[in-house]
Amino acid sequence: MENLLEIKNLHATIDGKEILKGINLTVKAGEVHAIMGPNGSGKSTLSNVLVGHPAYTVTEGEIFYKGKNLLELAPEERSHEGLFLSFQYPVEIPGVSITNFMRAAINAKRQYLGQEPMNATEFLKMMREKRALVNLESKLANRSVNEGFSGGEKKRNEIFQMAMLEPTLSILDETDSGLDIDALRIVAEGVNKLKREDTSSLVITHYQRLLDYIKPDIVHVLYNGKIVKTAGPELVMELEERGYDWIKALNN
Amino acid sequence: MSQEYIDIFEQNRELVEKPCAALLNDARSKAYARFKAAGFPGIKEEDWLHSNVSKQFAANYGMNLGRVNVKADRQSIFTCDVPDLKTRQAFIINDTFSNGSNGKELPSGVVLASLNETASKNPALLASYYNALAANGDSIAQFNTMFAQDGLLLYIPKNTAVEETIQIITLLQANVEMLSNRRLLIILEENSSASLLVCDHSSMAKQTLSTQVTEIFIGRGANLHLYELEETSHSNTRLSHLFVRQQADSNFIHSNITLTGGFTRNRIEVTLEEGGAAADISGLVIGDKNQHTDNRTLVDHKSGNCTSNELYKYILDEQSTGVFAGKMLIRPDAQHTLSQQTNRNLCLTSDAHMYAQPQLEIYADDVKCSHGSTVGQLDENALFYMQQRGIPAAEARHLLMHAFAGEVIENIKIDALRDRLHMLVEKRLRGELNHCKGCALCK
To answer: Which domain holds residue A221?
Structure first.
């Protein structure tokens, strides 16, 4: 299998403080990787750096995505190339309807790929189909992006957008946080339905419960800005039973 | 600067008064005395702190006091079209009223005519209204009254509903630097209703200045929607003073939109005279270059059980300046007042300046009032979120700005006008509105 994502010795800072201290990670096409770890270990920083958040500075290392130097691409170009982040805290955008928002996103991507804008009928049909995937009601689709949405609705909206954009590599940043068990199941099923042989995911989470639904191939533990342990899915159970203290003890 | 205009007035008083009705000239005498005493306001006066208005009068303006007929083939120079909106049009060219040809017959008893003509022919109709509110206005209002020779009268008798939107287009037209003073008098008697769109298109290459005094009387149970749209040029100065007096259970909706302009000052004073009156006033400013836009509003709650809502939003780009001073005055008798004021401002560059001054003055104890004002930039988190979804940064900024402005546009109750304004704001934000559409003067 070819390497979809290659992270080599990645160091990154925010406000001058080093958070990532030499990450090495390779994701092959079709793989699901889980990244676990205690609070403050750098999980969200890693996902933000991957999608090009301007608050973070990469001080050392390289990232290759589909063989391209990812760090040279603007955030929107990374998106057009198939990189998607399901935000831990999806942003509310008053006054911009989900429909207009998605139309702008889809057509920007099509323009990047040298395609004609999608016609209105086709677009609305696609909206309907993808909404059904995560039980997103049509009345929500006419509302402003995330404005006044419950925690569960926001996360379903993230997966709906993922379905619309059909990414190659999706990063799910604590998608399980704030969800009750039913919402968690709907979101996870949505993600599973979108899984194709050539698409990969990075699932960032504290807990086992999301990984009961989305089965990882490889599990990493991130601690203090480094990946300190990599193993198969059995590591999830071990972490659930033993917590993170033994990992911390080994690495302090 | 004041003295120069006092001299002009004194030297030309006969010329000014000759074509005018006694009603106008009587008010003129009082205004002259008041202006002579006060002069132009200086920037040390609280109300003019950020707007140096005296400077605006410094250019060597021509004033058409002899009322030399300005030939204007208005239909060929101008079509201010709102697609899908049938309107009854009227023009005020400089200060001269002229009827448009479109639209249906107005309901019987409705008068849409030259102010001066009506004041000459039928002074009884206007006697208790003309200058009744503006007499207490600031010295720019006095200046206007001192020179005012014509303008528009709209009179709607009681129990009459004008269904079709009345559109009034104001234009300045001359080959030289031009100063013009126009006057609008709008009277809605008991239980009447109308909606009015006033488009200020005074855009010439030459330096222009217009003063405008609008007096509106809304009778018991009457209903007025007033939409004011400024699409002038950077070389234009607009000094507008709007007075509104509302009687019991009347309803007033005002949208005040500055799409383009130079130096703009809109003074708005709404008096809720009797119980059950409601005023909903909103404004949107989009500024760039050295544009200066000053909106100063006063909602005067004189009686109990009245409601006022206010929403003003500014988007300031480049070196533009915005001023918002909004005052809600709740007098001792105004128990059970509901009053809310919101002012939100975006400064897109570090050179753009916003002066915001929300004020609540409450003398009654059983009221519900709130106000809030913010100045900020576009939400960086929202911008990044949109970019992550593939929307390029410039487009994301554009969507956010339009959404910000959209809240004010959504207040517009006429569907076709609302759609049109969304389109105009869209063009404005994309920088495609440097020239007003369809106006031969700008081409």
So the answer is: 3-251
Instruction: Point out the residues of chain A with pLDDT beneath 70.
Output: 1
Query: Could you tell me if A113 lies within 8 Å of chain B, comparing CB atoms?
Result: no
pLDDT below 70 — which residues of chain B?
70-81, 101-103, 203, 433-443
User: Which of A226, A98, A87 lies closest to A79 in space, CA to CA?
Assistant: A87
Nearest CA in chain B to A100: B399
Domain locations in chain B as residue ranges: 2-69+78-442
Query: B390 vs A100: CB contact, 8 Å cut-off?
Result: no
Q: What pTM, to 2 d.p., does this model score?
A: 0.90
pLDDT in tens, B91-145: 998 899 988 766 678 999 999 999 999 999 999 999 999 999 999 999 999 999 9
List chain B residues with CB under 8 Å of A117. none
Query: For residue A144, what is the domain's CATH number?
Result: 3.40.50.300
Using a CB–CB cutoff of 8 Å, tell me whether A92 touches chain B: yes
Contacts of A17 (CB under 8 A, 6+ apart): none
Residues in chain B closer than 8 A to A47 (CB atoms): none
- Could you give the number of structural domains in chain A? 1
Cβ distance A94 to B388 less than 8 Å, yes or no, reads no
Q: Quote the pLDDT of residue B440.
A: 36
Instruction: Confirm or reject contact between B395 and chain A (CB < 8 A).
Output: yes
**Which pLDDT does position B86 carry in this prediction?**
79
Place of tokens 């972490």: A239
Q: Which of B379, B391, B402 sits opposite A76 (nearest CB)?
A: B391
Q: What is the 3-state secondary structure (H, E, C) of B346-374?
A: EECCCCCEEEEEEEEEECCCCCEEEEEEE
